[in-house]
Amino acid sequence: MTAFDRLSSSLQDIINRDDTPPPAFLLGKRAAPDDETDDAEAEDDNSNRSPSVQPANENLLLHARKYIARKKLKTEAAKEVEKFMTDPHALKLFKIYTLGLELMASFSSIRAAAPEFRVSEDLQTNIKTFGYAVLLTPRLSSYRDDVPADITLLKTLRLGLPDNIERIPADWAKVEKEVFHELTQARSIIKKEIKKSLKGNPTAHVDIFRLTQALASKGSITMTIPLCARVALMRLVYEEDPSPTYWVTLDEHLASLREKTGGDKMKLARVFKSVLDNDRGAHGNNADAISLVSEDEVVDERQQQVDEAFSVSPDNGGVVCSGTQAGPSSGRDSTAEST
Question: Given this model, what pLDDT does residue 216 score?
Answer without folding.
Answer: 92
